């Protein structure tokens, strides 16, 4: 089942439009297909063939790649595993960022003990 999702793109599209259309933005209807064909198929890249053929959820070539519509907060916060000094099991697929800034290090105090827990101060230093 495919659900429709409406996306508003200010100033998007081409051709002549009325001022109302330009002001309101262009409405595009896209299908919410999750991550379908947003990454290249590893098997296809390695061997040039894929046992799933056209049913493969991954793209077989650059031409099949689809854009990913991500949440506006995607990778805006640091990964808890990385903050705790560990290795994130999600790797590049993690929804949180793995690079720590000086600000991250400044705002988080480390408590090294069982489970490697961190605490975020209620009043960050200024």
TrEMBL record:
Record-annotated C3H1-type domain positions: 35-63, 73-101
Residue intervals of every C3H1-type zinc finger in the record: 35-63, 73-101
Keyword Zinc-finger in record: yes
GO molecular function, one term: zinc ion binding
Superkingdom, taxonomy of origin: Eukaryota
Keywords: Metal-binding, Repeat, Zinc, Zinc-finger
Pfam families the UniProt entry points to: zf-CCCH (PF00642)
InterPro entries per the UniProt record, alphabetical: ZFP36-like, Znf_CCCH, Znf_CCCH_sf
Ribosomal protein found in the keyword field: no
Protein name (record): ZINC FINGER CCCH DOMAIN-CONTAINING PROTEIN 15
